[in-house]
Amino acid sequence: MATTLVILGMALVTFATRFTLVALLSRELPLPVARWLRFVPVAVFAALAAPELLRMGETARLQPEFWAGLAGVLVARRTAQVPLVIAAGLITFWLVRAMGW
Which range marks the domain in which residue 2 is found? Predict the structure, then answer.
């Protein structure tokens, strides 16, 4: 019974969050909200990448993560396009790892 209640509760929360988004997106968003939403992908990407890059310690320069992060930062400064940043970071990571670092 407890498991069923937990599953129903999770379903209700999932439905509520998705329904709220559908209801909001059917209307015109206020300009400040639309501006704010532009920063969500960058914030999510930073939140995913920062812990991995900051935990490396004193051997950071030798790690593939460091070089991938550096490539990502350089591409981000030049293009400001998240897919290109991710691609540059992944390709750099794979190349550095293939070289045996």
Answer: 1-34
| pLDDT per residue as tens, the chain (101 positions) | 889 999 999 999 999 988 887 777 777 878 898 899 888 888 887 888 788 777 766 666 678 888 898 899 899 999 988 899 999 999 999 999 999 87
Specify the pTM.
Answer: 0.54
Residue 99 gets which letter from DSSP? T
Look at the chain and count its residues: 101
CA dist., res. 65 & res. 92, Å (int): 9
**Encoded amino acid at 6, one letter:** V
CA gap 80, 85 in Å, rounded = 8
As for how many domains the chain has, the answer is: 2
Residues 94 and 73 in one domain: yes
Do 20 and 54 share a structural domain?
Answer: no
Q: How far is CA 67 from the centre of its chain?
A: 18
